[in-house]
Amino acid sequence: MSENTIEGNPTKSFFIQMITRDITINDAIIDLLDNSIDGASKLRSDGNYEGLFIDITINKYEFIVKDNCGGFSLEVAQKYAFRFGRPDEAPESTGSVGRFGIGMKRALFKMGKIFKVESKTDENHFHIKVNVDEWKNKSRTINLENGDKQTVEDWNFKYEIVDESTNLVENGTFIEVKNLTNDVSDLFADNAFLNDLRNDIERLLNFSLQKKIKITLNGNILTCKGIEILFDNEGSKPYHVSGEKLGVRYKIIAGLGKVGDPSLSGWYIFCNDRLVLEADTSEITGWGTTLPKWHIDHVMFRGIVFLDSHETINLPLTTTKKGVDATSEIYKSILPLMKEAMQNVIPFLKNVTKLGDDANNYRKMLEEQEAKISVVEMKAYKFIHTSRAFVAPPIDTNLIAQKKDTVRIAYDLPKTIANKAKYYSDSKSYKELGEYTFNYYIKMEELEDE
């Protein structure tokens, strides 16, 4: 080191402590699952993940995640995957949610002292084994310009080629962490934690689960906890607007959802199909600014924002993917559209409140009678009604009064059969078909009684 130089290099210990400090273990694990799903999206560009899996094993002794989502190449491992941060020369992370290049390392260092990462592709099959304490103490000697030698920390990892099938038969990734920290070991042995983790995965990765990727946690298959909006060609239709700004494609949809749990109401924001903000009713999404604060009267409000970009850096993601960077230019440019959507829907919700004691009966009636559209269907749907128009369902007080003494009967049929029955019964909708078939049965019963 020259006499005019002040050393500013980080230390490994400081780096590890800092990158693991501000993320929960749940979010660290989901970061690893995001990598698997990024692999699935590259492997299945059509968006159908059927046949792909992510298996998670967690106990007080170890953490394992294994997938068949394509793996990553040795070149990617050597140049990018194990770097602490994304190099400027790294290729575009097309359609992914990985942005800063720290997710996998942060998760592994947070959990334990020994980890292994194995990857298999058509070209390579290799693994990296790391003892964290040994790696932290590893150093190397460099030659200085003045001829002196200096010992510096060695940040590199060693890989080995796998000649025989070990943990992977199909192309994919295998990650194993052992020698867990005491806190993590205790957490992994707690059923309450496992239930919370399951719930987090089912909610935050609901889009990928709807695309039929199979995720298991300790052998239990996880199910999708999706978001639905009421959408009926004869009833309510959501506000919608879409476009592109600053390298980001956006689609904003707002309308009505189930009454259910009030905590489900609010805005949901997806970045490259990953849920990053859930049921938000804060000022970040416009509530309580130029618009009223969220109130129980708004229980049916659902707003969905889809933000997609080939280059992840354009998206308003935080490092933990829990929330949005409200200062980002893209988010500031779409927030007025989100507010406009709320201005379309909130007046209808106020009118429902004016029904007084009948308000809840009306909300439940809508939930029962209106068709629903899932979040995956919403993103793909080509809306034909006027853009930026929320079509409110009619408020029929006579029908509400009748509803108090009625029940709803629902059943599912293959669409091809239902369409044939609708055609031959001359029904204009599935709802009308249901009434027709039920009335037909009642008439037959009456004829038999005679």
How would you sum up this structure, described in words?
The chain folds into three domains: 12-221, Heat Shock Protein 90 (2-Layer Sandwich), CATH 3.30.565.10; 228-403, Ribosomal Protein S5, domain 2 (2-Layer Sandwich); 415-449. It contains 14 helices and 17 strands. The chain is of the alpha+beta class. The model has no long low-confidence stretch (mean pLDDT 85). The longest helix has 25 residues, at 329-353. An eight-stranded mixed β-sheet has the order 7-4-3-8-2-1-9-10. The protein has a five-stranded mixed β-sheet with strand order 12-13-16-14-15. It has helices at residues 12-21, 25-43, 74-81, 103-111, 132-137, 182-188, 191-204, 206-210, 329-353, 359-369, 375-380, 397-403, 415-424, 430-449; strands at 53-58, 62-67, 112-120, 125-131, 139-143, 149-153, 159-161, 172-180, 214-217, 220-221, 228-230, 239-245, 248-256, 266-271, 274-280, 301-308, 372-374. α1 (12-21) packs across α4 and α2 packs across α4 (103-111).
